[in-house]
Design brief:
The complex is a heterodimer of chains A (361) and B (269).
Chain A lengths: L13 H9 L4 H27 L18 H13 L7 H15 L10 H9 L1 H9 L17 H27 L4 H15 L3 H15 L8 H27 L2 H9 L4 H16 L1 H14 L11 H9 L8 H30 L6
Chain B lengths: L1 H9 L1 H5 L10 E12 L2 E12 L3 E5 L6 H8 L7 E6 L2 E2 L4 H10 E4 L11 H13 L3 H14 L15 H13 L5 E5 L7 H16 L3 E5 L3 H7 L2 E6 L2 E6 L1 H6 L4 H12 L1
Parallel strand pairs in B: 3-8, 3-9, 6-7, 7-8
Antiparallel strand pairs in B: 1-2, 1-4, 4-5, 9-10
Helix pairs in contact in B: 5-6, 5-7, 6-7, 7-8
The chains are: A mainly alpha (361), B alpha/beta (269).
């Protein structure tokens, strides 16, 4: 006869039970706990003071920042430049539309039960870049043209990262498949491509793209600097992506390939329906890791004269009208990067949970 | 050319499926002096075999005798290097189109099931009909449910393979192959990876399938299955076919010394 289920002893559960178990279980744990509490209190206090209580939020110029705390006023005053670069004020609605669409496409991805969120994501990967391609530079449908040399700030960072990520994943996947191909020529091409691009620092790639590439291109054929940088980033990133995806491909058991073949599926269907869905799911952590690295690496475009968010902030710090605002500037940049990278990380965990069908062969 | 012959043949097995005794003596698999090497290792040494439509063949033999490799050659999961294999009138060569046309007509069940873990049971069954036969989704799902009922697990249709027991997974794998309406079914040790209490449920499905007139080649150690179902039992050893005989002769009066020794070993344990 089954016994009625008993509740655990009261000392084991609840806040007190948790503290006894985790914080004060022995004399050295008690000491550690107390030291940690002391450190937290002494560190958090001044930090909060700097960030919030003694910080300056309102005002109009550098002279209003008199307190001991951070001068957030500086960020507020220059926010427009940090986000849009030199994009003309009157046309910034176009960028705002893109920010809005970005939010519409990806906010649902964080909500488990949002209806048809798959299609929002699909829009983010296809429609969104297409709209951006026409809207941001303009020059079409009566929209005034904005040269890419005027783009900058967060907007430029996002464009570089978004296009780089979006193009590198499929290209990297194709390269990974090519590297595992039975056909020696295709395999050779892919191996050479991957090994060459992966062995070159991104800075070199960007320099080549901005300085050397124009020398080789035929007369009259010239891309803008931004486009050249983008192509460089995409090719460089796809080599990394290829190796991440290859790791996933190698983890798929031979039996999966055989079962797919035995059903009469040809190469592309076998890869597209059976192997890649499983392989890509397996390497989501690696893929997102690469994305995050790329997102931060986009700051390197600074050295070829493109003003991404870090470049924008750095150039204003040296503005004589503002003094001693370097820390605020860098904290702001770090915060912006953290928001986006943390978002990607959370999304990938969400995705992994959703795709886990409880079968690890 | 190949397409058209396949299509006309398509309807033939169905009408005969009810009556397995009245089967025409047409050859669906013809293997002629077939050799295979792994590097320098001679795995299969000149195999010859004709399989008639609706025939049920059991292949047994010690491990390493090449029996799995043999049936994997029949749908070209392995390549042979000499000799001929003709399946359903199509010779297996390097021609990918021919290989795919053979694979469409030959179902295979593996020792480790090899279900697609990222797809539900129903999606596993619909996949090939949808993408290879290109039949509409609704029809493919109807066919899939029909076969899932036949293997007695329609209620699991929307689960993922990882949520099923080994026996259930193997039955899904059988249903998945049947959804392509193959003319020939190959079984590569279908019960070897199963817990003892699950072997019967899989064998029951296979016996039922055999009764429906399906041409079957099974590599198995289930001698009971061989006795009840097989038309011929083949004994292989060291890459050769040592003996071919109907089951009662094979078990009661084996001719070759190697067969006798093998039977002694497996029937004792």
């Amino acid at each position: 006869m089954p016994r009625p289920s008993e509740l655990p002893p009261i000392k084991e559960i609840g806040a007190i039970g948790w503290m006894r178990k985790h914080l004060f279980s022995s004399w050295y744990n008690t000491v550690l706990t107390l030291v940690s509490v002391y450190l937290i209190v002494t560190l958090i206090g001044p930090l909060l003071n700097w960030v919030v209580f003694e910080a300056t939020f309102a005002g109009s110029s550098s002279s209003d920042c008199k307190g001991e705390g951070a001068c957030w006023l500086f960020i507020g005053q220059r926010l427009n430049f940090f986000i849009y670069g030199f994009y003309p004020d009157a046309l910034q609605w176009r960028v705002d539309v893109m920010f809005g669409l970005l939010a519409v496409a990806f906010a649902p991805q964080f909500m488990e039960r949002f209806p048809a969120r798959k299609y929002f994501g699909l829009f983010g990967m296809t429609g969104l870049p297409l709209i951006g391609y026409f809207l941001i530079p303009g020059g079409w449908f009566g929209l005034e043209e904005v040269q890419s040399s005027k783009w900058g700030g967060l907007m430029l960072t996002l464009i570089l990262a978004y296009v780089g990520i979006l193009a590198a994943l499929p290209l990297g996947t194709v390269l990974a498949l090519g590297r595992r191909s039975d056909m020696p020529v295709i395999r050779g091409i892919c191996v050479v491509f991957i090994e060459v691009w992966r062995a070159v620092p991104l800075i070199t790639v960007l320099f080549m793209a901005s300085v050397m590439l124009p020398l080789f291109l035929p007369e009259g054929m010239n891309f803008e600097k931004l486009m050249r940088a983008l192509i460089g980033i995409i090719l460089w990133q796809s080599a990394y992506m290829a190796e991440v995806v290859r790791g996933g491909l190698q983890a798929i058991p031979k039996g999966q390939y055989e079962a797919a073949s035995a059903l009469g599926l040809g190469y592309w269907k076998k890869m597209g329906l059976i192997v890649l869905p499983q392989a890509l799911t397996l390497v989501i952590p690696g893929i997102v890791n690469t994305f995050i690295a790329l997102f931060k690496d986009t700051t390197l475009v600074l050295i070829i004269g493109l003003f991404d968010i870090l470049g924008a902030v750095q150039s204003t710090i040296t503005d004589p009208a503002w003094q001693n605002v370097a820390i605020e500037g860098y904290v702001f940049v770090a915060f912006c990067f953290w928001v986006f990278c943390f978002g990607m990380s959370r999304y990938s965990q969400n995705l992994e949970r959703k795709l886990d069908t409880g079968h690890k062969t | 050319m190949i397409e058209s012959t396949l299509n006309t043949d398509d309807k033939a097995p169905k009408s005969q499926s009810l009556d397995s005794t009245k089967r025409p003596e047409s050859t669906v698999i013809k293997v002629e002096d077939m050799h295979k090497w792994y590097g320098k290792f001679h795995v299969l040494k000149g195999l010859n075999l004709d399989v008639a439509q609706g025939e049920r063949i059991v292949i047994c033999g010690p491990s390493g005798s090449g029996k799995s490799t043999f049936i994997r050659c029949i749908n070209r999961l392995e390549e042979h290097q000499r000799g001929k294999i003709i399946v359903d009138g199509v010779e297996l060569t390097d021609d990918l189109k021919q290989i795919d046309s053979v694979r469409r007509e030959v179902g295979m069940v593996f020792q480790h099931f090899n279900l697609f873990p990222h797809l539900t049971v129903l999606e596993n069954c619909c996949l090939a009909p949808l993408w290879v036969r290109k039949i509409p989704r609704r029809e493919a799902e109807a066919i899939a449910m029909e076969y899932l009922e036949r293997v007695k697990i329609p209620e699991q249709a929307h689960k993922f393979p990882g949520q099923l027991s080994g026996g259930q997974q193997q039955r899904v794998a059988i249903a998945r192959s049947l959804c392509m309406k193959p003319k020939i079914m190959l079984f590569d040790e279908p019960t070897s990876a199963l817990d003892p209490e699950m072997i019967k449920e899989v064998l029951d499905v296979m016996v039922e399938l055999a009764g429906s007139g399906m041409t079957m080649i099974c590599v198995t150690h289930e001698m009971g299955f061989a006795k009840t179902v097989a038309d011929r039992v083949i004994f292989m050893d060291q890459g050769e076919i040592v003996e071919v005989a109907p089951p009662h002769e094979f078990f009661e009066n084996p001719q070759e010394a190697r067969t006798q020794q093998f039977l002694k070993q497996i029937l004792h344990h």
